[in-house]
Amino acid sequence: MNETGERYDRVLAESTAALQRADVHHALIGGIAAAFYGLHPPGRDIDIFADPSDAPRTREALAGAGFKVGRGDPPRTVSASRDGVTVEVVFEAAGSMRFDRECQAHVVEGDYHGRRLRVLGREDLLIMKANRFGGGQPQHWFDAVGLVIPELDWEYLVRRARPLARPVLSLLLWAQAQGRSVPDQTVVDLFEAIFGGETSRPVEEPADADRRLAARIHERLAADPRVSAPELEVSIRGGKVVITGVVATEERRSAISALVDELVGPGRAENRTRVLPMREPKKERLK
């Protein structure tokens, strides 16, 4: 291993050890996760997925371990560097994916270059990469296809992918066309998550139409980069679309109103979301 590779491995070990000492729930993503699954060599940076509630402890842990901690993109990321290697800790991935308890339960532990690593599960990594495709980054698409194996937990994948079903369905259809083993039922389930199984219902009752409309709006709120909020609740009350939940900024709340107006027309929705920004860590606690 050359000097660059040794430096990368050293920073990888020091950053993950610092997070473990601070009891920060995390898993590796990005290039190192792709390398772990045998897709291609790791890149120059280290990407880590972590629970948003651990953001303050993450900053403190990395600073305490001698990393130069930058501002990142709060509340989504924390960036740190050491010996020319950048470590980016992600708290909210594309499509508002978060490292919640269900995601943590599917983390994979294994050896890589003689080191024990915690890596995001194939299913969640596939969903994440399918939603990163675009913007001149086709490697994410090919990585996601490479993660497709018959042993995937397909029921879990469908459940996790529902708010972001369109890109995942597109990817799995393409993977099927390339000879990858993707169950037909998984494709059907994702299709119905998007379209509500409309092809099987010749007559649609008003209540069914409301549910389908709410599901379509929820999907767009999750997938649109202006909003990226799958945790919001969408309901239809008295013929009006009602959005409830908590958002981080006033700008995102305004984006919700604009998006829903685009979907159903002005005056047909009530945005009842509340702004509750993530607290920044106290400066005096940073070392």
Provide a quick synopsis of the model.
With 287 residues, this protein is of the alpha/beta class. 43% of the residues lie in helices and 17% in strands.
Number-wise, the strands total 12
- Give the helix tally: 11
* Beta-strand share of residues: 15-25%
Q: Which regions contain 5 or more consecutive residues with pLDDT less than 50?
A: 198-204
Name the strands of the widest sheet in spatial order: 1-2-5-4-3
Major pleated sheet:
5 strands, mixed
Q: How much is the average pLDDT?
A: 86
Distance between the termini: 33 Å
Q: Percent of residues in helical segments?
A: 40-55%
Class by SSE composition: alpha/beta
| Rg, Cα atoms, Å | 21 Å
Structure, described:
- Helices cover 43% and strands 17% of the residues.
- It has 287 residues and is an alpha/beta fold.
- Among the domains are: 3-120, Beta Polymerase, domain 2 (2-Layer Sandwich); 199-275, 2-Layer Sandwich (Histidine-containing Protein, Chain: A).
- It has a five-stranded mixed sheet. Strands 8-9-11 form a three-stranded mixed sheet, covered by helices on one side.
- A hairpin with a 2-residue loop joins strand 6 and strand 7.
- It is globular.
- Mean pLDDT is 86; it is low at 198-204.
Question: Which terms summarize this structure?
Answer:
Histidine-containing Protein, Chain: A; 287 residues; alpha/beta; five-stranded mixed β-sheet; Beta Polymerase, domain 2; three-stranded mixed β-sheet
